[in-house]
Amino acid sequence: MIEILAITFPIYAALVLGYLVVWKGWFNAGDMRVLGRYVLNIALPALIFSAVAARSPVQVFQPGYVLIYALGGLATVAISYGLFSLRGTDPKRRALGVMGSTCPNNAFVGYPIMLLAFPDQAGIILALNLLVENLLLVPVCLILVELAGNRADQPIWARLRRILLDLARMPMLIGLALGLVVSLIGLPLPGPFMRFIDMLALSAGAVSLLVIGGSLVGLPLHGNRSLAAQISASKLLLHPALVALAAAILLGLGLIPLTPELHSAVILSAAMPMFGIYTVLAQRQGLEGAASLAMLTGTSCAFVTLTALLWLLT
Predict the structure, then answer these.
(1) What percent of the residues of the chain are helix, what percent strand, and what percent coil, each to the nearest 5?
(2) Which pick of 49, 52, 211, 257 has the fewest CB atoms within 10 Å?
């Protein structure tokens, strides 16, 4: 257990530090947004490019991992949709609930944990997670949000096309695409250039955790508490359970190969709290109260659930 706490304690110590520096006024919410843009637009794209470009395509693309993560995520969308419908949740809250249950924060929270748990594969794990999340899970959830908004000005396919185009412009996906090109053609890159990229990449882990901790300051603590609790429970328990089930079925039937490290990593990836822009998207629907409560609860309780999962899986 000491070894497990050695992974989770530094992560949450950094989150607490981020919270404290904003709470004390040493940094403000605007500073956290600037640091967040730095991580999303510079540090993480550099990290993904470095991790992918330095490996062969066989090492980079893990179809078993992608299939498990995709199936578990889609199952979470379907089951959480049904569970929120059963409690009579209106379409807007249901869509936000499904998104909070399905879209984890692997960029800001997941990567630092993987860096401590699986240091040699953390970059590849992040790249695979972002591939599934940004090309499948996030678009599906955004379409649910769009449909719940009752907008009739555009057909569904036009809205889906707009969402995919917006995602394709994300620097992280551009870094992934460029890394894959370098990996596929076997292009050797100059040492000074790669050291520059690695220098940027090394800043991603600590800064991302400070941003998440600081972003928790000032979240509105009013809203539908039972809805927030259901979203948090679905994210921390239902999502990883369904990914674990998908892995057990596919591996048990011998349909895919997967190393023990990646098997553990795919379940842990699904167990991360909801992604950082969750409250921003909820605010557009006027539901920031429940989303903020869910994010605060999920991020806090993940210390316990992630510690337990790391103890079980590593």
Answers:
(1) 80, 0, 20
(2) 257
- The alpha-carbon radius of gyration of the chain (Å, integer) is 19
Distance of CA 96 to the CA centre of its chain: 16
Say how far residue 160 (Cα) sits from the centre of its chain: 21
The rounded distance, in Å, linking the Cα atoms of 84 and 171 is 33
Identify the CA nearest to 122 among candidates 296, 19, 268, 273.
Answer: 268
**Lookup result for tokens 């605060």:** 296
Q: Is residue 208 classed exposed, middle or buried when 0-12, 13-18 and 19+ CB atoms within 10 A define those classes? A: buried
If one counts every other C-beta atom within 10 angstroms of the C-beta of residue 261, the result is: 16
Walking along the chain (314 residues) 10 residues at a time, the average pLDDT comes out as: 82 91 90 87 89 81 94 97 90 90 90 91 90 87 78 65 76 87 85 90 86 82 79 96 97 92 96 83 72 87 93 87
Q: How far is C-alpha 19 from the geometric centre of its chain's CA atoms?
A: 20
Q: Which phi and psi (to 5°) does residue 273 adopt?
A: -65, 170
What is the amino acid identity at position 117? A
Classify residue 73 as exposed, middle or buried by CB count within 10 Å of its CB (0-12, 13-18, 19+): buried
Count CA within 13 A, CB hemisphere, residue 252.
6
Burial of 251 (0-12, 13-18, 19+ CB in 10 A): middle
